[in-house]
Fold:
Amino acid sequence: DSGVTQTPKHLITATGQRVTLRCSPRSGDLSVYWYQQSLDQGLQFLIQYYNGEERAKGNILERFSAQQFPDLHSELNLSSLELGDSALYFCASSVGGISGNTIYFGEGSWLTVV
Amino acid sequence: ELKVEQNPLFLSMQEGKNYTIYCNYSTTSDRLYWYRQDPGKSLESLFVLLSNGAVKQEGRLMASLDTKARLSTLHITAAVHDLSATYFCAVEPYFNTNAGKSTFGDGTTLTVKP
Structure:
C-alpha cells in the first residue's frame, strides 16, 4: 500500500459525459501527479501540482482539468468524454515539488467510456 | 520533442541468468526514473537517477545513467521468477521549458522462467 488513495476504482460512463477522479496523497506529500495509461498511447504524464499550484503540465487535453485543494487532495476532471479516453488514470504523490523525488502511485482509476 | 526508447520490449529469461534493459532518450535530460508494474497493478518506483554516472542498486537490480550517451541501463543479476513484471523508464528534463514533464518508454515486459 503506497498510501495514495484514488476513487473511484472503476467507472463506466457514456460518451459526452463528464467525470471526476479523486486522489488523496500520502500524508506529508505536497506534490500530486496525474498520469494516463492506455494501450494506444502507453503511459503519459498529464499534470503536476505542488502545494496547490500547477507545477508542470504534460499531455493533458483541453477537455481535462485538474486542481489541488488546500487539504492537498486533488481532482482530475474529464469532460466531453470520447471512446479514446478509456484508460487507467493514476494519481501519484511525492514529498517535494522539484523533480528527483521518489514518486508513490495510487492503485489507479479504470475509466471505460462506452 | 523528447523521445524515450526502451529495448527490448519483451524479454524472456531463464532463472539465474543476467540481462540488461536499455533506455535511450533523444534530448538532454537530467532525471531518469525506473518503475516496475505487475500485471493489472499500479507502478512502483525502483530508482531515481539524478546525475551522470549515477548508479543505484537494490537486490538483483542495478540501474545506471550516462547523460552524455543519453542512456540508462537496468541490469538484472541472477533473475528469479519474482522479477517478472513490466519495467518502464521515464525521463524528465530539469532546466528547460519542459522541466518536470516526464516522458515514458514503452516498457519492457520481463518473464523469468524456471
Observations:
- The two ends of chain B are 41 Å apart (CA to CA).
- Chain B touches chain A through 22 residues (CB under 8 Å).
- Chain B is about 0% helix and 55% strand.
